[in-house]
Amino acid sequence: IKMGGPVGRYAMDQQIVEATAGMLEAAGINVELETLEFSSYVPKMDELAYDIYYIGVADLTIDPPTHWEGYYYSETAEGGYANDEVDALIDEVKVTIDDDKAIELFEEVQTILYEEKPTFPLYYEPHMVGVRKGVQDFAPRLDEYIIVRDSYFEE
Length: 155
Fold this sequence. Notes:
alpha/beta; three-stranded parallel sheet; two-stranded antiparallel sheet
């Protein structure tokens, strides 16, 4: 298989893809690994030049349909994934006002994605935030934004 990975975009990205390629080789899968600087890598990834590729994913919206459309909605899926049932569920959840119904739809999509595994997380990079003693009313967020509008400093 042809595998791609970026160099210099994520912490230890080249080492991660080299180790992954090595593990695949150890499992008997022949891997042709290409690592490129991020600005050269992304266009090749978008052209589906790789059978498997490494890319970081962060959901800056905390809105499943917005996040899922980039990976699992047939018209916009980066990796070429297509499933009419997933498309219909995503379309439905985007117009669903009832939170309980939306949760049911999210669970249906997640079940299909779990069974089909069009993507799989290689690992989760820790999100570390340091705050100086005296900073008040600051809370780290899951969406990786750092918002300090309501924070203040007290000696």
